[in-house]
Write a sequence for this structure.
């Protein structure tokens, strides 16, 4: 493998990359792409480029994506008002069709971009039925918590050297489609596959305290920061997802995808690229 041809000259050094390829070679890395990047082509292309480099280095990657903005746009176009309960979008019989449509469109866009970069990406949407869910509540309707993942399908895809790209949609007991929070979906799949790393790509630097990035945290420190109110708002469920995943995943990173080569710095350098959480 000619690393000089694959790696960007202004990224992590070849020696560091070699060390981390050896470290991760037999493991699975799950990367969750947050919704805000999926509408800005320049940022999405930056992340796609990182993903294609990681794949060309021979690592096993699984991608889960969100799609909040695209869903909002699709519902608005169809005159459906979004309602929220505790940060989760109410998904009734009418809106779930358009939510599924928006997520499938994003999924195919990511797959197409990866394939154009010479990767073998495979679309995984609701029709593949890889994640079974339980409904969260009657009020949220078709919003589910992932309870079971079909690892066999994902393992077969990875063994074929393909990249599964997964939309956050699950199947209920009645075979109905459910909307799933993408962080929860990524955490559950990473746990189920016992991934070495779960990387959540967001549009913030990671966990901050007094304006400074905290490079590493353990679960109990993170919970104390939630209690103190240092970690608040939308970051609270994200951190709870990370802590839950740490039962089966060695480490979880929260990384700002706006930074160039953020994924490469996170995976292949000693300095990392965001906040790393360990058990």
């Amino acid at each position: 493998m000619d690393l000089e041809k694959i790696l960007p000259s202004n990224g992590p050094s070849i020696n560091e990359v070699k060390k981390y390829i050896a470290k991760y070679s037999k493991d699975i890395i799950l990367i969750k792409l947050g919704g805000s990047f999926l509408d800005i082509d320049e940022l999405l292309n930056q992340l796609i480029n990182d993903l294609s480099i990681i794949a060309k280095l021979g690592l096993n990657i699984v991608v889960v994506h969100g799609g909040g903005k695209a869903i909002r746009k699709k519902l608005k176009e169809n005159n459906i008002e979004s309602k929220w309960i505790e940060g989760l979008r109410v998904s009734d019989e009418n809106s779930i069709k358009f939510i599924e449509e928006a997520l499938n469109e994003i999924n195919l866009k990511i797959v197409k971009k990866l394939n154009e970069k010479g990767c073998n990406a495979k679309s995984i949407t609701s029709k593949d039925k890889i994640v079974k869910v339980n409904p969260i509540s009657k009020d949220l309707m078709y919003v589910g918590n992932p309870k079971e993942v079909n690892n066999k399908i994902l393992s077969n895809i990875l063994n074929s050297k393909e990249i599964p790209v997964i939309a956050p949609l699950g199947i209920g007991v009645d075979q109905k489609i459910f909307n799933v929070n993408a962080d929860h979906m990524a955490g559950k799949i990473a746990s189920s596959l016992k991934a070495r790393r779960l990387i959540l790509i967001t549009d913030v630097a990671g966990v901050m305290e007094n304006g400074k990035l905290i490079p590493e945290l353990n679960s109990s420190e993170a919970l104390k920061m939630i209690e103190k109110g240092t970690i608040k708002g939308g970051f609270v469920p994200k951190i709870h997802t990370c802590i839950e995943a740490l039962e089966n995943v060695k480490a979880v990173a929260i990384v700002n995808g706006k930074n160039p080569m953020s994924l490469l710095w996170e995976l292949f350098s000693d300095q990392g690229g965001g906040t790393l959480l360990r058990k």
Remarks:
- The radius of gyration is 18 Å.
- The CA atoms of residues 132 and 148 lie 5 Å apart.
